[in-house]
Amino acid sequence: MTKGLLTSRLTKLKLEAISAKSPTNANITKFRQYRDIYNTTLRACKKLHFSNANTNNAKNLKKTWSILNTALHKPKQHNTIHSLLHKNSLITDPLTIANTFNNFFTNIATEIAKKIHPTDPATHPTQTTQPNTPLFAMSDTPVTEDEIITTIKNLEDKKTADRTGLSTNLLKKVHLH
User: Fold this and answer.
1) Nearest to 135 by CA among 115, 109, 117
2) Nearest to 56 by CA among 163, 162, 48
3) Residue 42, Cβ neighbours under 10 Å: how many?
4) Residue 15 and residue 8: Cα distance in Å, rounded?
5) Cβ burial 94-125 (10 Å sphere, 16+ → b, else e)
6) Domain containing 111: what range?
7) Beta carbons of 45 and 5 less than 8 angstroms apart
8) What confidence score (pLDDT) does residue 124 get?
9) Residue 96 and residue 83: Cα distance in Å, rounded?
10) Shared domain check, 89 and 65
């Protein structure tokens, strides 16, 4: 709150006390008029504050949502898993719960792939499956320098850093040198 709003708040509280102590029509009217003007000004200041905050953080989606949730008086949600039922046993240790989730999400693609019936090689002659070859590998074809440069050039030009601390703007500048 600004210094002016704090002073106005004190004045409003004093007028409220006077109208409660001595409830004449003049005191009540004076308090209500001042209260209404104060509330209108306070709402306008809040609107201006949140508008400026959103404008200043327009490129930071996390901060934008934080500002919106604050404006809407939404409390932060803490969805913590305290226990997990896995293979008919109840797990309550946080580290074991985390490892169970990691194992599940690490292995789910392979488990689903095992359930898919193989296709007939006669209908798909280009498909070759070799034993001990991972089903999902990104290293089947090497990446060329030209592909990397083209990909970097096609990145959206942003100055905000990603979770590793790099921005696409930095990548574009570094690849030029």
Assistant:
1) 109
2) 48
3) 15
4) 10
5) eeebeeeeeeeeeeeeeeeeeeeeeeeeeeee
6) 83-117
7) yes
8) 58
9) 10
10) no
Indicate whether 145 belongs to any domain: yes
Domains in the chain, number: 3
142: in domain: yes
129 in any annotated domain: no
Task: List the chain residues with pLDDT less than 70.
Answer: 120-140, 176-177
Q: What is the DSSP string of 78-145?
A: ------EEETTEEE--HHHHHHHHHHHHHHHHHHHHHHSPPPPTTT-TT----TT--SS-S-SSPPPH
Give pLDDT tens digits for 103-129. 999 999 988 988 888 776 666 555 555
82 phi and psi angles, rounded to 5 deg: -90, -25
Residue 131 lies in a domain: no
CA distances from 70 to 42, 49, 54 (A): 16, 12, 12
**pLDDT value of position 76:** 77
61 contacts 162 by C-beta, under 8 angstroms: no
pLDDT for the residue numbered 134: 57
- What pLDDT sits at residue 133? 60
